[in-house]
């Protein structure tokens, strides 16, 4: 091809279909090299995408989106899909403002069928789509690509219990870790090859047609054959869960053999007997040795130098997550009641330190946030001190359990809410903007929002000594230098006074304090004095706060959370009840308009940056 990469000739799925099997293998190798190079420069999800290249190429070789629909679980497997659907040139701005999303987005492409930022949702969505196709008499298949980690969450099983007879549904299990169905060697491999042959289906249909047309005994013989076949498979695979749920099971299949995968999907493309379940074995991080050895480290990465890689257990970057994890491990050495619980995020939450030192009291429950919360409630009800460490965006999935199983009984569960506030890169699927609002609707909860490492360490130790439901929320990444310099007063809120008498107060909490302090300096340069109130305890509102704010003419509350139900609304109501006459402005994150961008870009977009806050204060008109 005169030195031209095959990858450079792929502009749509139609270009994949014209390639022979040798060219498909070459294309997979080029995509793997492209992803390693591209993600090392921009950051993104690497391990999971390296493991699904051949699978995705085979799907696009056989099926035709958007008539056929691919539903990813979760969406961090979809980079190859994006490359093959005309978005390769957008990877230089992956997850950046104005660039392509790191997850499927129907607003971005007609080839993306469903948003998939959270796990174990695909099957329910795919069942709905397949049923809609039936009701609308539309052709095409719905293919759900499900990572094995999703099977640690309950929605997958709820979906399997409701597949009915959707013969236009295909579920592909991307099994890169656990063995759901045992491969028993050459016999199983032979049967898999046999059942992927078009001759198998022709013979199967011919026999079924003959039996259906045979009076009296045909139906009984057909039922008997099916019973014997099911028993034979049971003896081979040692698991018929999927078939018992109504699927036709095929596998295990080598997930890195693009020819075998393509032939399998082509053989089953027109099969109409039952929903199909294809068990595919892959290697997470395939083709990049460091990611194969430690797929957890390379699950979601910032930009990195491929020639200088570190062991996350030995030399991690400093972050709120690592400081939390190290401090919790230390405190657990002093109190044997302390347990740590996470939902498939041991490294992401910094709990690898706890795991190494207190393995018996560490629990990774998988993608099962609901179970994590109620499990913690059970531990607390029997005298333990559980700490549930989950990203803010994923903790939303356990809200019923927070209300019913923890709050109603006033159980001593501490929620360590990681990635709280605005989050870069992952856009609308992973923002931590709801937790302050939903926790603060529960009167029993104490919510603490530290702005630096010193406050995080102090309040973690203090909250572990207290009883009842508590939440400690902190941002993604490292502490800001200006906020680190503030240290920790141990007070529920701190006041930073202007050099002159101030008519205006700027109130905030957490990482947003950086912008508030900078805004006060900008206002001072224009001759406007502003006092800054930095809350550490955000619910219930600290005693004395409303009285302290009562003397200002103007109050501006800024928070990296949603407006409705946010802390700013709670403060506004409390001030109104006390008869405060100050003008009040609440700057918060809207429920729409979120996108993938840096935190600074998001703050500027929502008027939460220092310049916007300073301008807002000075535009009040009655401040000096």
TrEMBL record:
Hydrolase among keywords: no
Amino-acid positions noted as binding Mg(2+) in the UniProt annotation, renumbered to this chain: 148, 176
Gene3D superfamilies listed in its UniProt record: 3.40.50.920, 3.40.50.970
Record keywords: Isoprene biosynthesis, Magnesium, Metal-binding, Thiamine biosynthesis, Thiamine pyrophosphate, Transferase
Start and end residues of each Transketolase-like pyrimidine-binding domain: 318-481
Biological role stated in the UniProt entry: Catalyzes the acyloin condensation reaction between C atoms 2 and 3 of pyruvate and glyceraldehyde 3-phosphate to yield 1-deoxy-D-xylulose-5-phosphate (DXP).
PANTHER family linked: 1-D-DEOXYXYLULOSE 5-PHOSPHATE SYNTHASE-RELATED (PTHR43322), 1-DEOXY-D-XYLULOSE-5-PHOSPHATE SYNTHASE, CHLOROPLASTIC (PTHR43322:SF5)
Name the UniProt record assigns to this protein: 1-deoxy-D-xylulose-5-phosphate synthase
Organism: Ruthenibacterium lactatiformans
Gene: dxs
């Amino acid at each position: 091809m005169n030195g031209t990469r095959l990858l450079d000739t792929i502009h749509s799925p139609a270009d994949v279909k014209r390639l022979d099997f040798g060219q498909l293998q070459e294309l997979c190798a080029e995509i793997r090299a492209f992803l390693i190079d591209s993600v090392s420069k921009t950051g993104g999800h690497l391990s999971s995408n390296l493991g699904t290249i051949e699978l995705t190429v085979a799907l696009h070789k056989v099926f035709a989106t958007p008539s056929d629909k691919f539903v990813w679980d979760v969406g961090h497997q979809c980079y190859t899909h994006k490359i093959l659907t005309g978005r390769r040139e957008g990877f230089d701005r992956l997850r950046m403002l104005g660039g392509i999303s790191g997850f499927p987005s129907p607003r971005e492409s007609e080839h993306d069928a469903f948003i998939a930022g959270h796990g174990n949702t695909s099957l329910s969505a795919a069942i709905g789509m397949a049923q809609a196709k039936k009701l609308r008499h539309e052709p095409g298949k719905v293919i759900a690509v499900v990572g094995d980690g999703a099977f640690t969450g309950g929605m997958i099983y709820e979906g399997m219990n409701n597949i009915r007879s959707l013969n236009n549904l295909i579920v592909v299990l991307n099994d890169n870790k656990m063995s759901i169905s045992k491969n028993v060697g050459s016999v199983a491999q032979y049967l898999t090859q046999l059942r992927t042959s078009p001759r198998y289906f022709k013979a199967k249909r011919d026999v079924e047609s003959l039996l259906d047309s045979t009076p009296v005994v045909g139906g009984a013989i057909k039922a008997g054959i099916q019973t014997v076949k099911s028993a034979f498979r049971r003896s081979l695979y040692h698991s018929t869960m999927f078939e018992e749920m109504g699927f036709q099971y095929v596998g295990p299949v080598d997930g890195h053999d693009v020819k075998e995968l393509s032939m399998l999907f082509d053989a089953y493309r027109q099969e109409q007997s039952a929903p199909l379940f294809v068990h595919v074995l892959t290697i997470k991080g395939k083709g990049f040795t460091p990611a194969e050895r430690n797929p957890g480290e390379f699950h979601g990465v910032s930009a990195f130098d491929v020639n200088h890689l570190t062991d996350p257990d030995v030399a991690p970057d400093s972050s709120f997550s690592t400081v939390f994890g190290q401090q919790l491990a230390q405190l657990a050495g002093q109190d044997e009641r302390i347990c740590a619980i996470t939902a498939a995020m041991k490294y992401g939450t910094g709990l690898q330190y706890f795991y190494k030192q207190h393995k018996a009291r560490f629990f990774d429950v998988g993608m099962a946030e609901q179970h994590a919360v109620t499990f913690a409630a059970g531990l607390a009800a029997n005298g333990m001190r559980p700490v549930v460490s989950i990203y803010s965006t994923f903790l939303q999935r356990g809200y019923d359990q927070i209300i019913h199983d923890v709050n109603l009984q006033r159980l001593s569960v501490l929620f360590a809410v990681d990635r709280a506030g605005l989050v870069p890169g992952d856009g609308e699927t992973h923002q931590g903007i709801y937790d302050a609002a939903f926790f603060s609707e529960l009167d029993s909860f104490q919510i603490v929002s530290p702005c630096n490492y010193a406050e995080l360490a102090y309040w973690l130790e203090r909250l572990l000594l207290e009883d009842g439901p508590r939440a400690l929320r902190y941002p993604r990444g490292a502490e800001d230098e200006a906020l680190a310099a503030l240290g920790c007063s141990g007070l529920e809120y701190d006041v930073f006074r202007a050099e002159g008498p101030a008519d205006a107060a700027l109130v905030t909490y957490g990482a947003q304090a950086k912008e508030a302090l900078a805004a006060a300096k900008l206002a001072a340069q224009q001759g406007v004095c502003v006092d800054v109130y930095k809350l550490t305890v955000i619910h219930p509102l600290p005693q004395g706060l409303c009285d302290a704010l009562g003397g200002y003419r103007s109050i501006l509350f800024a928070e990296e959370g949603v407006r409705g139900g946010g802390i700013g609304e709670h403060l506004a109501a409390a001030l109104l009840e006390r008869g405060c006459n100050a003008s009040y402005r609440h700057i918060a994150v809207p429920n729409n308009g979120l996108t993938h961008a840096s935190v600074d870009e998001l703050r500027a977009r929502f008027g939460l940056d220092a310049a916007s806050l300073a301008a807002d204060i000075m535009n009040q008109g009655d401040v000096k």
